[in-house]
UniProtKB/TrEMBL annotation:
Gene3D superfamilies: 3.40.50.2020. Belongs to the purine/pyrimidine phosphoribosyltransferase family. PyrE subfamily. Homodimer. This is Orotate phosphoribosyltransferase. It comes from Thermospira aquatica. It is an enzyme of class 2 (transferase). Keywords: Glycosyltransferase, Magnesium, Pyrimidine biosynthesis, Transferase. It comes from the Bacteria. Pathway: Pyrimidine metabolism; UMP biosynthesis via de novo pathway; UMP from orotate: step 1/2.
Length: 197
């Protein structure tokens, strides 16, 4: 298991921007959870993005970095802000028929040191896809920087250095044996649906 990290400043901004909700939620996967994370709501506020980037950049002061890459769409804002703080290029990749690609003339040159930026890492699957793309272009993955680690059960171990600011410990349940459903105190809601606070 990865170590949990608590950054109370980031947590309070996640709550304030309603990027982090606590309750009883139906996730897009259909699973029920006691937490819902939508980092885009955090990144609505450029000052929050700037603060997060400064904190993450501090963790990557030592290794030389040539370019920061984010995956569309969640990683774009944090990749850009990190690039600004580190004084390097910030680019993003996007899915074309389900596969991450570099478009818009973005390049990773042979031997460039690449930092992958994400808003939230859950299983590490999309990080892996971005890393494959970086390698295909001859880049070297220096590490991964993420605002949040969602820390769902059994997170895949990332084969790269992984730095993040705040861990969100979410429980995920099959709807058939959801503890929150069994408690019956809070109805399960789909985040973003009408009627939800
Ligand atoms: Zn439930």
């Amino acid at each position: 298991m990865l170590t949990l990290r608590e950054d109370h400043e980031i947590e309070s901004l996640l709550m304030k921007s309603e990027a982090l909700l606590k309750g009883h939620f139906i996730l897009s996967s259909g699973l029920h959870s006691n937490r819902y994370v939508q980092c885009a709501k955090f990144f609505q506020y450029p000052a929050y993005a700037e603060l997060a980037a400064k904190k993450l950049a501090k963790l990557y002061e030592d290794p030389p970095i040539d370019v920061v890459i984010g995956g569309a769409f969640g990683g774009i804002t944090i990749a850009y802000e990190l690039a600004r703080v580190l004084g390097v290029r910030g680019i993003f990749c996007e899915r074309v028929e389900g596969v991450f690609q570099l478009r818009r003339g973005f390049e990773i040159r042979q031997g460039e040191k690449v930092l992958i930026a994400e808003d939230v890492v859950t299983t590490g699957k999309s990080i892996d896809e971005v890393a494959q793309l970086v390698k295909q272009h001859g880049g070297e993955v220096v590490g991964v920087a993420s605002l949040v680690d969602r820390h769902m059960p059994d997170p895949e171990k990332l084969p790269y250095r992984f730095e993040w600011l705040h861990s969100v410990q979410a429980e995920a349940y099959d709807p058939a044996d959801c503890l929150l459903c069994k408690e019956g105190k809070l109805p399960a809601v789909k985040p973003g649906s009408r009627g939800m606070k």
